[in-house]
Amino acid sequence: MSIATGLATGRSATPALVEQAISIALAKAELSIPNSVLLFLTQEFAHDPTAALKAALRASSCTQIIGCSAAGIFTEQEWVLDAPAAAAMVFGGEMRLQPVNETTADQRLLSLAAPNAIDTNWLEAPGQRFGGVSGDATGRGPFKVWCSGKVVAGGRCEVEVRGAEVQIGVSQGVRAISAPLEVTQVSGYDLLTLRQQPALNVLARELPLEVRELDRIPLHLLMAGVTIGDPATAISEGRFRLTPIISTNADDRSVTLSQRLSLGERLFWALRQPLAAERDMRHTLDLLQEAQAEPPRFAMLFPCMGRGPYFYGGVDRDLELLTARYPGMPIIGFYGNGEIAPFNGSNQLFQYAAVMSLFR
Predict the structure, then answer these.
(1) In the sheet that 346-350 helps form, which strands lie side by side, from edge to edge?
(2) How confident is the model at residue 215 (pLDDT cuts 50, 70, 90)?
(3) Alpha-carbon distance 202 to 343, whole Å?
(4) Which of 304, 352, 357 is CA-nearest to residue 332?
(5) C-alpha to C-alpha distance for 19 and 116, rounded to whole angstroms
(6) Closest Cα to residue 54, out of 181, 146, 165?
């Protein structure tokens, strides 16, 4: 096995944790010096990861160290939140992480970014990007991205995984509670009407009974889904982008969203539920497995911070489903503040999703 992971947890963010994680991975991979190291560190390292990166260089004798800090990290062994930890995946043999300067349209690129480094021009540049945003649920904090063993000032890093082919899947994991309806009036970020009816009235009418009985509408669990292509089949085929709801406005019965909409787009209301997310994750894994010529050798998983163990009641069902499908397969990932994947012909930034990449 020329690819393996290691995870180390401690009471404080020390360089020794990084050395331990890499040493575990090297021993499992039966490598003395890897070609590359993918290194994820928890937020306790984020303020100044210099010492941690130097420790990674010492432990691996390798300069090609790629990664970022995040609110939580994991391997196939376990996940860690709210504690200092380091997770490493080492690459040997023909496998390596290779930074790229110029990209082509068909290149698959592992892409990591800090919250303030995301922009439309980068997402639309040539290349099919997959990965995550280094940040917590607020998008704030001293989160860092590194490449070639050094912190990247611009906050972004993208590399090609040489020696492997990759399949990419996206699980958005929501329960649709309405059919797609035409957007008929907007003002900035405010959705005013759907099918000429006040947007808030439409939302309230579609809420399930268990939600209507609550004292307040749980906006953190509700999303607006904007369909892509034929709206009749968009939900069943997963062709939609999710947009968080910022607020509801009783005065004009409007709903404020995090993204602007255009007249004529079709929108449905959706509810974030653990059971729906788990069901969708299973379906996404089924689709990937059906398209596989052979089982994957390793994987990377990038779930939203809002879809991790806290969402599932203390367990990470996304990670559990992946490890159950491919027992013993090396897996690494982090909980971030946005997920990146090619979708419907272009790179998209998702919210509350899980992006998985399976390599063979």
Answers:
(1) 96-99, 156-162, 108-113, 128-133, 339-343, 346-350
(2) confident
(3) 29
(4) 357
(5) 29
(6) 146
- Identify which of 32, 146, 110, 115 has the alpha carbon closest to the alpha carbon of residue 298: 110
Cα dihedral sign, 143-303-176-273: negative
Distance, in Å, from the CA atom of 237 to the CA atom of 176, rounded to the nearest integer, reads 12
Alpha carbons 7 and 2: distance in angstroms, whole number: 17
CA atoms within 13 A on the CB side of 89: 26
Which of 352, 360, 346 is closest to 130 using CA atoms? Answer: 346
300 forms beta bridges with 332, 357
Tokens of 80: 């860690």
Interval 289-332: pLDDT, tens: 999 989 999 999 999 998 999 999 999 999 999 999 999 999 99
| C-alpha span between 75 and 334 (Å, rounded) | 9
3-state helix, strand, coil in the chain (%, to 5): 25, 40, 35
CA angle 295, 18, 159 (to 5 degrees): 50
The tens digit of pLDDT for each residue in 256-293 reads: 999 999 999 999 999 999 999 999 999 999 999 999 98
Cα distances from 294 to residues 156, 209, 360, in angstroms, run 32, 45, 7
CA-CA distance, 226 to 85, in Å (whole number)? 37
Is 102 in a helix, a strand, or coil? coil
DSSP type of residue 326: S
Chain segment 99-111, per-residue pLDDT in tens? 988 899 999 999 9
Strand order in the sheet with 36-42: 3-9, 85-91, 36-42, 65-70, 145-147, 150-151
- One DSSP character per residue, 72-98 reads EEEESS-EEESS-EEEEEEE-TT-EEE
Strands 145-147 and 85-91: unpaired
Q: Are strands 79-81 and 156-162 parallel, antiparallel or unpaired?
A: unpaired
Query: Is residue 6 predicted with pLDDT exceeding 90?
Result: yes
Are the beta carbons of 358 and 296 closer than 8 angstroms?
Answer: yes
In the predicted model, is pLDDT for residue 42 greater than 80? yes
Q: How many residues would you count in the chain?
A: 360
